[in-house]
Amino acid sequence: MKILIWSYMFSIGGGGRLLTNLATALARQPDVHYVRVVLSAQTGFKDRVSTLEHPKIDIVYSEEDIRNTPNHPYIVDCDVVYVFWPHGPAFVDFHKPTVITFHDATIFDYVPPFTPGSVVREHWEKAKDWLERSTHVVVSSEYVKSRLVAHFGPACQSAFLIPHAISPSKYFENPSVDTTLSQLFPFPYFIYPANTSPHKNHYNLLLAYSRFSRRSQYSLLLIGYNTHLLRSVPPCWPELASIPTLVSLIKRVGLQIDKDVFPLGLVDDQLVAPLIKNAYALIMPSLAEGGGSYPVEEALSMGTPVLCSDIPVMREHLARRSAEVAWFNPESPDDMTRAMESLADNYAHYKQSAIQGMNDPTVSWDDIAKHYIAVFHSAHFHYRGFYL
Fold it and tell me: Which residues form the Glycosyltransferase subfamily 4-like N-terminal domain (predicted)?
């Protein structure tokens, strides 16, 4: 099978790590001839994947929309096109069997404040086009499927379910990295890995943390795209929507940068795992997720306790996990603070539970790749009328 993965852009943090794991797993499968990944240079994807280690992967940077060129050489010889991130661009027919992963319906369930209706409608129309005109649609949770049915109708029931929030590759201890981290950041600390999109709920997290009675003992590390902008000092307000709101909140509630809160921005991939492993706890206050939370899965795989939004997709995701999680209502800062206090009061219990659950059985990325390949074969048959 010859696979073209097309994704002009995606979430730089979690999305990039997800695509890295999936593309390399697809390339490991014996019946895959090649995986050609075509995306923008802005993604920095060549820095994530070694084509020497994965010779069946070909990474192509292209700023042009190859879909607009009939018989484009990147498309013409492939058997199936996989659109990893259909959120944003308009649908254009590849004239090939096309499979998409629709990651979430957050833009429709949690419309960012002050977003004009015309903007939301444009997103809705683009999404509807992708869902109706793609050969097959994949979702990463039953929750996402249910939201697609709610927004676009019962035809979305036919979407294939393939989970993504699964255990990461094994983390290998690196004492030198751990020593470096201990010199850079005050231990112990809570950590939240996420970009600053409004649904990631940094506002309620910061408000809750400001009310935490032991915040002088436990700092809060924020890693992820644009979190470094929370260091901005007025009148140098960042232009990015919602960041000035968070900056003003930090000032208003008396949180101090690099004492209480450490906004680190994007960190190198090799630092994410040790930062999570060495954390006092990982907190996940998001209002919405697609297939669950990759950082939560990473934390539990490394024995780090988790505080988590009590939302349907996270209940679905963590149903297969044995570790006890400190749940809270993400729309209530007071309930979030209560969860922090409870975890601190009963830390030994939560830590022991997380450690005992480290080896919970889970699927591998190779398992996920096999599921995708089955969908690709089905798409090819559906489109061409014969199997590869």
Answer: 12-168
